[in-house]
Design goal:
The complex is a heterodimer of chains A (about 120) and B (about 120). With about 120 residues, chain A is an all-beta fold. Chain A has strands at about 5, 10-15, 20, 25, 30-40, 45-50, 55-60, 65-70, 75-80, 85-95, 105, 110-115. In chain A, the strands form three sheets. In chain A, strands 2, 5, 6, 10, 11 and 12 form a six-stranded mixed sheet that branches. A four-stranded antiparallel sheet of chain A has the order 3-9-8-7, with no helix packed on it. In chain A, strands 1-4 form a two-stranded antiparallel sheet. The chains are: A mainly beta (about 120), B mainly beta (about 120).
Chain lengths: ~120, ~120
């Protein structure tokens, strides 16, 4: 069975400071991993994905994530937070194969950015 | 990435009624996926809809409660039947992007249902 755990339900940062959103996964397979962002009253937007190529993945809006197999982690980072980054972020995994299209999502992390 | 349009974007419904959500994609896709996001919760897959065949439902979801149609390669509907307040959720339509096996999904903006 596959599971995704986001270690923080809420993260609060000041504008201009670094962002770290933590995600751990558990899977019997080598999963594909994703980060999505959901702004209020909006759908989910794909930020970035890891699919067994480079372990450091760059996404949109300055976000990046590093896949660490030894730690089963896929943490999302950004060097400098912007007010527009305030949103909910979801980490997700896909085991591929017969699970194609089925994403297992973490519980979400709400990011608050203070001026 | 695909452009996915959902209708309605939000609705307020009475207990015991049913509501059909429409999902239109701007390109032909083999599979479409319906997810539910309950208030303050993460996303859960309801079912996978293939054109020309019965939808495949995940554990805990049944066809009588969530009937799905998939009449062509660009359109699908999800009906939430005999609604109760527990069905108040965001329902999201999604399609797969990328090469098979990478599995990222693209989502519509969701249909926000409140059941009174």
């Amino acid at each position: 069975a596959q599971s995704v755990t986001q270690l923080d339900s809420h993260v609060s940062v000041s504008e201009g400071t670094p962002v770290l959103l933590r995600c751990n996964y558990s899977s019997s397979y080598s999963p594909s991993l994703f980060w999505y962002v959901q702004h209020p009253n909006k759908g989910l937007q794909l930020l970035l994905k890891y699919t067994s190529a480079a372990t450091l993945v760059k996404g949109i809006n300055g976000f990046e994530a590093e896949f660490k197999k030894s730690e089963t982690s896929f943490h999302l980072t950004k060097p400098s937070a912007h007010m527009s980054d305030a949103a909910e972020y979801f980490c997700a995994a896909n085991a591929g194969g017969t699970s194609y299209g089925k994403l297992t999502f973490g519980q979400g992390t709400i990011l608050t950015v203070h001026p | 990435s695909a452009v996915i349009s959902q209708k309605p974007s939000r609705d307020i419904c009475q207990r015991g009624t049913s509501l059909t959500i429409q999902c239109q994609v701007d390109s032909q896709v083999t599979m479409m996926f319906w997810y539910r996001q309950q208030p303050g919760q993460s996303l859960t897959l309801i079912a996978t809809a293939n054109q020309g065949s019965e939808a495949t439902y995940e554990s805990g979801f049944v066809i009588d409660k969530f009937p799905i149609s998939r009449p062509n390669l660009t359109f699908s509907t999800l009906t939430v039947s005999n609604m109760s307040p527990e069905d108040s959720s965001i329902y999201l339509c999604s399609v797969a992007g990328g090469r098979r096996g990478t599995g990222e999904l693209f989502f519509g903006e969701g249909s926000r249902l409140t059941v009174l």
